[in-house]
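re: ur question from earlier - yeah i can do the single chain one, its not a big deal. heres the input i used so u can compare w yours
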Amino acid sequence: MYELTYVAVIEEPDMDTGPLTQRRFTLHPLTLCFPVQTLTLFAIKAAERLGWLRALSRVLGHVVLSDLYDVKECVGKGGFAKVRLARRLDTNEMVALKIMKKRDMTIRDLQLYFNEVQALTICRHPHVVDMHRVFETAECLYMEMEYLEGRDLLTRLGSSGKTAHDEKETETRARAILRTILEALSHVHGLGFVHRDIKPENVIFVSAREDSEVKVADFNLAVALAPKEKYGSYAGSKPYAAPEVRLGFPHDRAADLWSLGVVAYLLLCGRMPYSSLVGLDVHKAYRNGDVMC
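and the output i got, formated as tokens:
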């Protein structure tokens, strides 16, 4: 099976040279996207670009999706990707297929995709969602993931902090969930990665059973850091972000633990620790040291 070469090929919109040259004509670009840089090539004729696209597709091992899967309904979407339920034709196994259209992706989107592939390849663990394989067609990038039948933690809690049975998560159940997430983070941090987006939506139940185990998912914001290195740019979801992240300061693995602390409060109390503060008020409270449970 073809594995990702960390190169994506994108057919770009045609370009009219217009006033750039004395003789007006159309260029037919295509872009090679690598994890850390891009290279755009220009063909004079559309047929020439098509020839390059076909040749690169052969080299990169592009496949025909219908040869591999019976693709079924959409089970999730977000950002630049959709997730569809699919049945593998070789094993009959049900999997989750994350699908990203190259035409709809920015260079930043591609970097997030490469981030997730790298993190999930290295950080394999029983409590981290399993990525089976990655591949691409001429139009799309794909990630085959294990299919987790349970819903995410936020859906289970409901908008009022209740479970599906209209009962608050007990301390015993919350402790089991939090321990599982901590074990996953300990493994991820030990391999040098920071998740940077710990929140209930990214904690998925393996099955619909009430006592189901959970797994940590969505690693597209994950970054690898050296032991004493810190990351400078903002990432994550504001209600769960650590103060140093919200304020734009360099941060490290400790930011994940703050986010987990917010999740813990939500599990045990059924509300956010600063639910009365929204938007810039939270930002101001961070600066003044006024954020209290």
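The longest helix spans residues 171-190. not sure if urs matches, ping me
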